[in-house]
Amino acid sequence: MHRFIYLLAMLWLAVTLAGCASMSKKDCQTADWHSIGYNDGARGIYYSNLDNYRKRCSEYQIAPDANAYQTGWNQGIRSYCTGETGYRIGMSGQAYQNICPADLAAGYLAGWQQGVQQYCTPENGLRQGLAGYPYRGVCPSSMADEFQNRYRLGLDVRQARANHQNLEYQVDHLRKSLTAEQDSHRYHELLDELARLRHREGHSAFTVRALEACTNDDWFDAGLSDGESGNPYQADEIDRICRNYGSGEDEAGYRDGWSRGNNHYCSYDSGLYAGQSNQEYRGVCNGPGYGLFWSGYLRGIQLFQAGHYDDHPRPQYPHEERSHPRNAQPGHQQGNAAQHPGVHEIRPGQGQVNRQGQGKAGSKQPAGLAKKEHPVAGHVTHPGHRGSVAGKKPADKQQAKHPDQKRGFGPDHPDKTEDKQPTDKQQTQPAANPRGAQPQPEQ
Questions:
Q1: Is 415 inside a domain boundary?
Q2: Phi, psi at residue 393, to the nearest 5°?
Q3: Neighbours of 56 (CB within 10 A)
Q4: d(CA 275, CA 311)
Q5: CA distance 377 to 389
Q6: Residues sharing a CB contact under 8 Å with residue 206, sequence separation 6 or more, in sequence order
């Protein structure tokens, strides 16, 4: 209902604030200045608007009838200065106009103040910011801070979405160029540029998720997206961002979403896609998921180096919903933790949040990050990880290291080789086109 009233007010205001139309010589000669004055007054246009008519008609050496205009304006302004009109003006966020006669000013002002009370709610502040409407400083001091916090949040969400959409377009355009590129040198230049763009896109996507989480104080979707994107646990960072807008925290929702998203991400298909797309791995998988992810990631790296970086589709994850209501009591979380093993159970008095991100007793961080599990069979290592994961040894019985470890590059660097010795077939690639070689079947 409030939204409908607001739209009507904005429509009415557009008509009210319209300036005088251009006037021809005939218009100036035949004008009914009493009616023109009445219409201006009834629309809340100041009496000084007569000067605009004077200026236009002076081009034809014609002067408006000022007395007729003033008489009409005095009648029109009385129909304008009602409490209902004041309410519409206040509801649209317009400043108070000291335009009404003394005997009507109080009723108009009272209506305006009521409209401002409806306008200056935090919910409307967010809507105004998301729509990009200007704020004219009409809110009383008791409401201004909360309104402006939500208004700034809406503006920042709007800007962050636009920035991310632009980066997505650039990445998509560059990927298409990379697919069609035949020159080897230019191909690797494009890979470097794509790696930089993807880094910026990933940061931009997180900014959008964090700001959107602040709009409704529900962080489940942000955690789910971070987990499915292979991002580390970032509830503290979202909390830092939301505090700038006076928003509440929802680490329980983020933890629930991140745990589920991380379970989706730590799979063979995700690893294959990440390796084949030349994406960075950020050390988020543990236990059996770690081995599944890295077997796919190593295979994806082989395909990427062979030039088939875009052949594998992005994994599709099942739809997830929050397992417990917003602000659920600890007892509710405890029951859901049994249904969803990925959700770390927090009990009252368990300890403080560890802001350094280390999983220790008392940390709210998911238990899977507290200590990585490293079975002692086979060895598939990656940069920054000193343990091992269960798996089969390569067919050549040599230790298979992560392909980036030899040169010390991160997983997102396009110039990477494998430590294990490739077979003769794997060494054979057309020199002119690094994407020309066919991938070898998996071991």
A1: no
A2: -75, 155
A3: 19
A4: 11
A5: 7
A6: 226, 231, 234, 237
CA distance 222 to 363: 20
C-alpha atoms less than 13 angstroms from C-alpha of 347 in its C-beta half-sphere: 2
Please state the φ and ψ torsions of residue 73, each to the nearest 5 degrees: -65, -40
Q: Which residues of 87-98 are buried (b: 16+ CB within 10 A; e: fewer)?
A: bbbbbbbbebbe
Residue with tokens 């014609």: 62
| CB-based burial label for 142 (10 Å; 0-12, 13-18, 19+) | exposed
Determine the Cα angle at 178 with ends 172 and 181, to 5°.
145
Q: In degrees, to the nearest 5, what angle opens at C-alpha 430 toward C-alphas 426 and 432? A: 145
- Where do we find the tokens 């809340």? 44
47 within domain boundaries: yes
The owner of tokens 């927090």 is: 346
- Exposure string over 144-182, b if 16+ CB within 10 A, otherwise e: bebbbbbbbbbbbbeebbeebeebeeebeebbeebeebe
Burial bucket for residue 309 (CB in 10 Å: 0-12, 13-18, 19+) = buried
Angle, alpha carbons 215-221-224 (nearest 5°)? 150
Q: Please state the φ and ψ torsions of residue 385, each to the nearest 5 degrees.
A: -125, 120
How confident is the model at residue 276, as a pLDDT? 87
For helices 268-276 and 287-305, what crossing angle results, to 10°? 30
What share of residues in the chain are helix, strand, coil (percent, to 5)? 55, 0, 45
Structural domain range at position 58: 2-119
Place of tokens 């251009």: 22
pLDDT for 245-294, tens place per residue?
Answer: 999 999 999 999 999 999 999 999 999 999 988 888 999 999 999 999 99
Contact 290, 422 (CB under 8 A): no
Closest CA to 151 of 161, 166, 165, 137: 137
Indicate the DSSP class of residue 382: B
Length of the chain: 443
Residue for token pair 């998996």: 442
Two tokens at 186? 């230019």
Q: Identify the segments of the chain with pLDDT beneath 70.
A: 1-21, 308-312, 323-443
112, part of any domain: yes
How many structural domains does the chain have?
A: 1
Does residue 430 lie within any of the structural domains? no
- Find tokens 């029109």 and name the residue: 76
